[in-house]
Batch of 4 targets.
Target 1
Amino acid sequence: MNETTNTPKKRVLSGIQPSGVLTLGNYLGALKNWKAMQSEFDCLFMVADLHTITIRQEPAKFRQQIYNTAAMLLSIGLDPSQSTLFIQSHVAAHAQLCWILSCYTQFGELSRMTQFKEKSQKHADNVNAGLFSYPVLMAADILLYASDLVPVGHDQKQHLEISRNIATRFNNCYGDVLTIPEPYIPKIGARVMSLQNPTKKMSKSDENVNAWVGIVDSPDDILRKFKRAVTDSEGCIRMQPGRDAINNLISIYSTVTGKSPEQVEQQFEGKGYGEFKVAIAEAVIEEFRPIRENFEYYIKDKKELERIFKAGAESAAHIANRQVGKVMKKIGFVL
Ligand code: TYM
């Protein structure tokens, strides 16, 4: 219950793939908000491991990445006594509802997904059916928990729209069964761009390591990457249309420090890019310092991680299984 309004807390669900190191983009676009939301909402956060096998993974590395991502959720300050933290594949209902919803999803709408187009170009030797139906699994993740809000970065907006469309289509057949989720996309920080090419999203899969900052990067690496960040020849620190590099740097500094872009512009009035870049690096280093220390602590004890995440999966499965039962009953299955 929400103690001030005396109404049930809204349900929040989100997920992150264990597909490698987590970046400043993941942090500012999603994780930082997850932490901020956990006291106000009824939150479930998951390591979206089923999504990750749409791209071929090396088994030992994949397993380690799942542990790393689980440890990272705790390290950023998600509290298992407040939020339900779990690993997607531990709750079988995700795959079950995914199949059901795929029968309510059109080939045409999946073909229009930009992420499918991009990923199938990038991995042209493995354009598997999972890559194509990826958004249906994401819809299942969200709809299983009757989620009201889904905090994500801008790149997931289209997947949220298709989840809403699938839910609406299902409800048109069977009545008010599924909750239509709302995306929760931050105004600033939802699109952290590459430090080397600010027209591209910051992504860990970028071959140029200077393009992205990892949450567990060393302070030296963070400083080096910001010092090398591309800028422009205007020489002033002001947000303006078309100034992708500077807009990106101002957004990063603004999101990390909590200052508005206008305050950032005032603070650096008449100052050079060199000074600005060092200030951003220092702010990011300070933001990540406790997280990196926590990470070193949590990753040491895999048994404890397993205990926490298994308990989370039990609570999640309790909600998810009931929802699948409800959906199956509406369709006419014999239960
Ligand atoms: P993933 O693992 O690619 O990214 C996790 C979150 O980080 C955000 N993000 C960014 N935000 C701003 N700037 C960037 N450069 C940046 N890069 C990543 C993403 O938008 C995302 O919020 N399909 C999802 C995981 C998922 C999920 C779900 C999310 C699976 N099921 C259900 C919400 C609800 C994904 O691949 O995110």
Target 2
Amino acid sequence: MITLTGKKVSEGVAIGRLSFYRRDTKEIKKFDVKDVEKEIMRFQKGREKALLELKDLYTASIKDVGEANAAIFEMQQMILEDQDFIDAITGVILEQKLNAEFAVQSASEHFIETCVQEGKNYVQGHDTDIRDVSSRLVRILSRSWKDRLLTDEPIVLAANELYPSEAVQLDKTKILGFVTRYGAINSHTAVLARTMGIPSVIGLGEALKKDYDGKTIVVDGFEGKIYIEPDYTTLTRMKQKKENNVSQVKNLERLKGKDNVTQSGQRIDICANIGKREDIENVLRSDAGGIGLFRSEFLYMENRHKLPTEEQQFQTYKLAAEAMGAKPVVIRTADLGGDKPAECLDFGEENNPAMGYRGIRISLDKDEMFKTQLRAILRASVFGNVSVMFPMITSLEEVQSAKLVLETAKRELKEEKTAFDEEIQVGVMIETPAAVMISGELAREVDFFSIGTNDLSQYTMAADRQNDRISRYYDPHHPALLKMIRIVTNNVHLEGKRISICGDLAADLSLTEFFIQIGIDELSVTPPQVLGLRKKIRDIQ
Ligand code: PEP
Ligand code: MG
């Protein structure tokens, strides 16, 4: 048995098979498939996706390089639709019972040869295009294969480090736990793991070896430890710990429907943070008082190279609004950039992305994209209790400009006779020291506030939340931060507005009493943390 210690990121115990995440594997794997029909269907799905990509590429490149040059992508579509090409690939899958990626690669080479022999005109001299089509297909298929992680059996995912854009694309139902070599506790990937309630340990270093791929692993998210090929005693102990945890969680269930009130009668609301539509179900199960933070940027990251359309966004926001009924749903406009780049936007090279092109700065720069999102939020507002919140605010002017775009979106919808909530509440996040200092002025401009303690800590302490090396400087208990929280709360309350905390500090039970004392109105935490926080509040004198 090998025992490794890292940093705890998300509590819980996971027991399963370790599987290393493969990023951009150049080598094409060859493996046997049992269900050839299913594999052919996977190939056909990949082929349809490749066709769509090529159609988009064709349209986009007409503008850049003209119709004649763009025609190359039309020709590539013809290759994908060529029955001989399709038959060659499905033939390999059917006859040799091999995986689709390998079939595509080997059949493409064969196809090139037979085209020459048989004098197939339209592909003559286009070997490169056939290979281009083939590698597009392999990329798409490998991704779907990666998403499926080669197995239907749930696994514990290991990686050097996982980017938020990758984490958000994984099939969560297949992941029992996360373990990584590197990474920081406050990174967005860690935030995602907590939101999903997946036991995770990070920062295990080089000791987490590739050789462990496929071996049994136990992840103890409470202690920040992992055990590879655990011995009988450890396995039994960890199984017991897992069961105890399950029964503790069950025990908390009795708090469902109960108030978040201290023994002396002080109340505070508890809401939940989400990143995607799949999380809505978890919020309902958690008995949270609403959605205190919808990190909408994950919709952009999931959508890969294309911006999510207004309709796509509207459907997701509507779903959240309807699911929550009268309970609030706070949709934060896209907080992209920093450690949350998205393939659909060009972020350029930045020396210091955390202090760069991110959050509201992008929205104000890309006003059409911003307006599209605001239109989607406005349209969803008639289906529940929706409000909108702007991230990464540093000035009053930013808020005023954002509100102007909101007004334009409202005006357009009115002209189109599309319904929306005219009184939709507007809030801002307090994530920068600048926002703290002008919170009084901001409070006269907006309806509500939410403190993003993750970013407020990094900007106050000048300590990158991603950088593990200086993590000891990232101290959310620092008196400077606690003072800031108190100052903002007072300023906001002086204007009669509401304030919540939606950063990870909201779930820090050692601070719950302090938050109640200073009069925080709401704490927004990950769905699995809701009932534990309720218990803490109810135990306070
Ligand atoms: C925060 O900064 O605390 C916050 C809630 O936003 P995010 O973690 O998504 O940056
Ligand atoms: Mg933030």
Target 3
Amino acid sequence: MRIVRYQVKEEAPQYGWLLDDKIGEVDGDIFGRYRRRDANIPRADVKLLAPCQPSKIVCVGRNYVDHAKELGNEVPKVPLIFLKPQSSIIASGEAILLPPQSAQVEHEAELVIVIGKRGRHITTEDAKKHILGYTVGNDVTARDLQKSDGQWTRAKGFDTFCVFGPWIDTDFDPSDAVVTCRVNGQMRQMASTRDMVFSVPTLVAYISSVMTLEPGDLIFSGTPAGVGPLKPGDRVDVEIDGLGGISNPVRAE
Ligand code: ZN
């Protein structure tokens, strides 16, 4: 099933499910008990929002060997994790704003894990039970500030720097999917998720050994090689084969 969050005109946002180009309402809690109504609302009649509201966004750095190398870094011995704030979230279609503090904002195409069930000290064997599904992400990064600050909060935390969507796919198999990023139609990043250093279950287990994972929390699983700068007027497309794609224009703030 593909879960969406959507809005009709000025009405309150709500969860739904997508079948072809039609949306059906979902009654209840998508992380618990719910009932699906018939999919009969044309997708073109609604605004799709970021597909959930995470209490936290956990990201993994240097989880592809080639990307660690291209920035001159070693592959970490354990997952390298950091957080992005909720205020950085935008949906597919909304503009990524380049802040005046940075001269080098870059795209990072990523597979994103969506947590479905609360847990702490989750084992790798149990990880799947705690995952609701997967979505497509762009971990937008001010590369110059990441280097100069040491701490990554500013570089990763600007408003509009967390794109994910357009839906959560609950049936997606993350073991060998091709992740691509195009800027103005030109391929920048392409790799399979099988090249990740730390697998999805390992990431869930590791992160939950540190912090309780809540329903709706996101894990950005790291980006492959090929990261590069974004300029005003660009359009950046991130796609994951069999999952979906997000597309955002880029503007100066
Ligand atoms: Zn990243």
Target 4
Amino acid sequence: MTDAILRVQDIRKSFDGNGVLQGVSLDIREGEVVVIVGPSGCGKSTLLRCINGLEAIDSGEIWLRDEKISGQTKNLHLVRQKIGMVFQSYDLFPHMKVMDNLLLGPTKALNRPRQEAEAEALEMLDRVGLKEKAYVFPRTLSGGQKQRVALVRAMLMKPEILLLDEITAALDPEMVSEVLNVVIDLANSGMTMAIVTHEMRFAEAVADRVVFIEDGLIVEEAPPEVFFHAPSTERAQRFLQSFTYTSRRRP
Ligand code: ADP
Ligand code: MG
């Protein structure tokens, strides 16, 4: 496949002799949304962290378009600019207003004129329903609002691909959908994404492809309608069953 934006080839990563990624290969095409699911501890976060260079891999290769990005140390900051990432915990700077948080990357790392970046930031805040929060401090925002700001901040860097690691895991339930709907909006606008989530209905709604990882290996890969309704491996079936409840007996 030559049209892959991101190519992960047989990567391995161990922590203290513990093989967390044991030969993972994954191609992501332009505009594609890949959802990565799997039991806790299977290596999902490690995979995303290796992709954007927060962890060094032990072997294998990672390519972003025609540039090999694994093994680099010199241009790591440039690579990171092209790969956006949002985590579970919103890491906005508390002493800076929302707008200053948003403009830090575009003005410092991309050298964009502040006015121009600010106009774009306002437009994007408006798109996620937060225009009126542009000049407040993060502490006045709800968790869901902070995550929407975090998504805007990542998008303002104009990444080639966006990596999302359980971005709603720390939110109260009523705030989950307001954040995930922004992600679906991004998907509709053509953003290439790799998304780790435990929200299975969201995963089914947003994914072009689902990748199921267990023990550091891709066990199954399928379109969402197949993965969620007729997974072929017993391990994926067991994983999906873990999201259902047994029925209660009532007299
Ligand atoms: P997931 O995101 O799928 O829950 P992780 O990728 O966070 O899983 O972790 C996979 C395994 O790697 C876990 O056993 C975890 O304890 C271990 N691990 C992750 N990061 C580190 C680290 N920096 N040092 C040591 N072990 C780690
Ligand atoms: Mg994780």
